[in-house]
Here is the input.
Amino acid sequence: MEEDQGNDRGQRDTGMGSDDDSMGEEDCEESEEASMLCRRRAALLLCVQQLSLALIGLQTVAQSAALVANDQLNKTIPQPYHTSILTGHGWVL
Here is the structure.
């Protein structure tokens, strides 16, 4: 009699009862769904991070282009002498 009670307690403690077999399959399906949701969430986060980096890159290029354009507009063009030649490196006498 004591052995039967020990087995009953063992089944309850470990969750190995006959009713728990069907619950185990449902738990497995739920864990697969949870795993799929985690993978989708990770993929979505990766896409958001890549988009954020792309936008930062575009903003950097736009700011750099604006700085170069402003710098070029603010520079005074030297008045060349009649013997000066304009080269790729500037005015040469």
Notes: Helices lie at 2-14, 19-74. The two ends are 115 Å apart (CA to CA). Strands lie at 85-87, 90-92.
